[in-house]
Amino acid sequence: MGRVTERRKVLRIRDGAGSSRPDTLVAEEPLEIRLNGKPLAITMRTPGDDFALAAGFLVSEGVLGGQRDLRNIVYCAGATADGSNTYNVVDVQTAPDVVIPDITLERNVYTTSSCGLCGKASLDAVRTTARWPVADTPPVRLTPELLASLPDRLRAAQRVFDRTGGLHAAALFSEEGELLDVREDVGRHNAVDKLVGRALQNGELPLSRVILLVSGRASFELAQKAVMAGIPVLAAVSAPSSLAVDLAAETGLTLVGFLRGSSMNVYAGEDRIALRAAAAQG
Asked: Which range is the signal sequence, renumbered to this chain (predicted)?
């Protein structure tokens, strides 16, 4: 099975002098996701938590909504000419009563960090297919101080990043700031899928009282994944995209960007942020 890291020989140059040494790199390999035996998508990922990644991807596609929808996930042998198992192909078997949207079987897409639909049609599609509208979730009230503490907690949990410097991370926190789960991957969308997939496998969907924190920017795709998992708050240490902001406003998702130190920007859903009362003006 693929490893999380690999070693490569590099020429290290410091102050004009060079020396040869091994370096630790994050592994990147393709994962083909099949749905009930039919090819669906290929994503470049860091090996590990592959079953959770596949399950989380299918939550964001609207195929899976709970533990009972999932019958089994297996690695597929015979993916190479000699019939060996590369552990790079998984087949997700759904329960017999799960309705499979026609579009999913026709996509056969190569997914990247920039994949996802574009424009108003995609906003409408997420809003109408979301199983757990985040606007209707029980009220979650978060202080800026709690949000500001989360990036350091995420960074402290990034074990593979410390060895490679080449991974994105995503984490789930409780509304009290407790770290519930963290995943790392070369693709931030994969890290989120691994979180959501593990939650589905554990029977924890919808994630209606948690905060999703991502280590980079907040794209439309990440906002989509949060909404489809019932997550009410998405926070990112970098910028959101315009379509992510539009989706957050459309669905009631609280979207926080540029979460660095004690500063942050709230782009949508500010009603979940508990600000201190402004000092009286003299």
From this structure: none
User: Which alpha helices (DSSP H) does 40-92 contain, by range?
Assistant: 50-60
% of the chain residues with pLDDT over 70:
84
- 164-213 residue pLDDT tens: 555 789 999 999 999 999 999 988 899 999 999 999 999 999 999 999 99
- Residue 100 tokens, joined: 């499979």
Number of domains in the chain: 1
Torsion sign across C-alpha atoms 201, 205, 211, 212? positive
Cα–Cα distance, 184 to 196 (Å, whole number): 13
Does 61 map to a domain? no
Handedness of CA 223, 225, 229, 234 (dihedral sign): negative
Domain containing 234: what range? 135-272
151 domain residue, yes or no: yes
* Contact indicator for 40, 55 with CB cutoff of 8 Å: no
What is the spatial distance between Cα 93 and Cα 42, in angstroms, rounded to a whole number?
17
What's the CATH code of the domain at 251? 3.40.140.10
DSSP 137: S
Asked whether residue 43 is domain-assigned, the answer is: no
Q: What is d(CA 276, CA 11) in angstroms, rounded to the nearest whole number?
A: 53
Q: Contact 247/226 with Cβ under 8 angstroms?
A: no
Active site residue ranges: 115
- What's the rounded mean pLDDT across residues 255-270? 96
